[in-house]
Amino acid sequence: MSAPATGRSLGLLLCLDCRATVRGVTAARSRCPRCQAHLHERKPHSLVLTTVLVVSAAVLYVPANVLPVMNTRTFFEDEQDTIMSGVLVLLHSGSWPIAMLVFIASIVVPLLKILALGVLLVSAWRRSARHRLQRGALFRMVEFIGRWSMLDIYAISLLATLVQVQSFASVIVGWGAWAFAAVVVLTLLAARTFDERLLWDTPPHD
Q: Which terminus in the chain has less CB density within 10 A, N or C?
């Protein structure tokens, strides 16, 4: 089975700045005729940069869910809450729609983004020819979710505000919240640095 035609095989280059498609030039020392930006066959160091970002996000995902995201101080006691304990507090208080929003946006979505990016990276490193269309769709889904990444931060902010209002307490941001914010930013950057065209590159022996 022959390899599918790609922009590289057809002699096409894409300008990453203005999205112009350029034909008949080589990537070495070439510039976009529209905006004069440097042209590259693939995003420079895409796999290495994306791998570092995804691994960093995966490492920080653990403290983001284990460490307290907020310290609640009242007249009577100090209490520390993780994301999950905050979800349980909302469930017990009857605010289950908000609890589900916080759980999905702050626990499920970041984990799925890390796993999806991991699958894409492994496929790109191996130059696997299987299920390319599905992996392309998976990447576009990760990109779409990335546009709503601030929903994760909003969910944590909403949780802190509700606890503060309901208990008349002062809320101090914990280390878990900073780790969580870092996970959101790292996964967003990973989706930006990953070059989807790498999924269509054929192995050297093809």
A: N
| Token pair listed for 64 | 């983001």
The pTM is what? 0.75
Residue 202's identity, in one-letter code, is T
* pLDDT digit string, tens, across residues 10-34: 667 777 777 777 776 665 557 777 7
Nearest to 60 by CA among 179, 173, 185, 149: 179
Domain range list for the chain: 1-41, 44-200
In sequence order, the 6+-apart residues with CB closer than 8 A to the CB of 49 are: 193
Count Cβ atoms within 10 A of the Cβ of residue 18 and give its class: 0-12 exposed, 13-18 middle, 19 or more buried: exposed
Which sign does the torsion angle of CA 37, 43, 49, 55 carry?
positive
Beta-carbon neighbour count of residue 190 at 10 Å? 26
Record the tokens describing residue 40, joined without a space.
């590259």
